[in-house]
Amino acid sequence: MMRVFQKLLLLFTLLLQTILYAQNTPTVIELFTSQGCSSCPPADALLEEIKSTYGENVITLSYHVDYWDYIGWKDPFATKGFTQKQYTYAEKFRSRSVYTPQAVINGRSHYTGSDRTTIYNVLNSKNSISQPIALTISEAKQNGNTVSVDYKIATTNTANELTFVVTINEKVTQVKRGENRNRTLKNTHIVVAEQTLHRYATNGQILLQLPDWIQPTDQLSIVAYATKSNVGIIDAVTASL
């Protein structure tokens, strides 16, 4: 009888922890942007404003795509990988094309990245992550251009993918050519490294490689999030590096 009681108490505790954890799981906003796009600076500013407004309740990620580089300004933060990530979302959302600025919220819905009213309405509505897996970052260290991240989760049965990201908190760029020529642009929470695991254990370590242009004075952060197919992001966590 005692063992049955202990098992019931354990199940109740785990259920309570899950409910409390779900309430504290932040919303994730992924902004696809480019320094070569004249429509993007307002979205970049909105992303910074949202982070300032919501704090730890929102994780902001700025992905710079490279398909605007042909206009004359090569975005220093853009990669083909981030462009491909946006095309993957386009397939999910059944969109015929990609565009900037685009804001994807919790991997479930997308909006024009500068549409302040709509995005705030979404953030203030019920869009919480309902299936957290208690994803945590137990340790993160930088050794030169390599970042090691130790993680733990409660289960491997819910999420299909675990994605780990390194971001720079802020960069200011003098743009000399393209649609934003002669402008000074500030970008925040810029994704500079990313890796996704399709197979993983309940605890492990992942290594991420930083680009060579990273400076010792750059403030870096780690973001980890779990994705479930046909649902979106189901858990997310961040930590300073």
Structural class: alpha+beta
Q: Say how many strands there are.
A: 11
How do the strands line up in the largest sheet? 2-1-3-4
Under CATH at level 1, the class stands as Alpha Beta
Q: Examine the coordinates and then state which fold CATH places here, giving the name of the CATH topology.
A: Glutaredoxin
Residue-averaged pLDDT, rounded? 89
Q: In the CATH classification, which architecture applies? A: 3-Layer(aba) Sandwich
**Uncertain stretches of 5 or more adjacent residues:** 4-23
| Annotated CATH homologous superfamily | Glutaredoxin
Shape descriptor reads globular
Number of helices: 4
Amino-to-carboxy terminus distance: 48 Å
Total of domains: 1
Helix content: 10-25%
**Could you tell me the strand content as a percent range?**
35-45%
In terms of topology, how is this protein built?
Blueprint: H1 2-24, E1 27-33, H2 40-54, E2 58-64, H3 80-92, E3 102-105, E4 109-112, H4 116-124, E5 136-143, E6 146-152, E7 161-175, E8 183-197, E9 203-209, E10 220-228, E11 232-240
Parallel strand pairs: 1-2
Antiparallel strand pairs: 1-3, 3-4, 5-6, 6-9, 7-8, 7-10, 10-11
